[in-house]
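Appendix C reproduces, verbatim, an entry submitted by the partner laboratory led by Prof. M.T., so that reviewers can inspect both the input and the predicted structure.
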Amino acid sequence: MFYRDERLALFIDGSNLYAAAKSLGFDIDYKLLRTEFMRRGKLLRAFYYTALLENDEYSPIRPLVDWLNYNGFTMVTKPAKEYTDSMGRKKVKGNMDIELAVNAMELAPHVDHMVIFSGDGDYRPLIESLQRQGVRVSVVSTIRSQPPMISDDLRRQADNFIELDELRDVVGRPLRNDGETNTQSIETEQVE
């Protein structure tokens, strides 16, 4: 579903991709991911979206953000907001939907194919708009987790659905035995 002369752009919803890969039992190797899509077409941009907890002295995602920034990814970050829900649990809010949508709309005239790494159904209207502008859109997520990590509406709207589990051998690495994740695969779990 990719053409070698296509101008490609990747849009990675960091927390969504992290949750999908974790549910499938592997970590993402972002160097391999970038290399794989460079092989599939002319990769113009690889965006990575994440919210950061600014008040922590050390954020577990900071090494990933720094590594991606130095290795060909365009980082889009904003401060996450911490709050306590009605049950007294601490939650983190760090939705990056608007930032991703704005970047995709701005880049649409310059690319042939966009790959969105997210299963969030909120992106369906974005994909529809991009398609009206002549951009092909692929979505990477998983239906193999319980529950599936992709919205049915999003999957139907996309020109192509790429099952993340089928990319495991190309862009994945096993979770470490001690339960810790590699610095290139740390992402905070966020709520909308």
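The helical segments are 14-24, 30-40, 62-70, 97-107, 124-132, 152-157, 168-171. Additional entries are available on request from the coordinating office.
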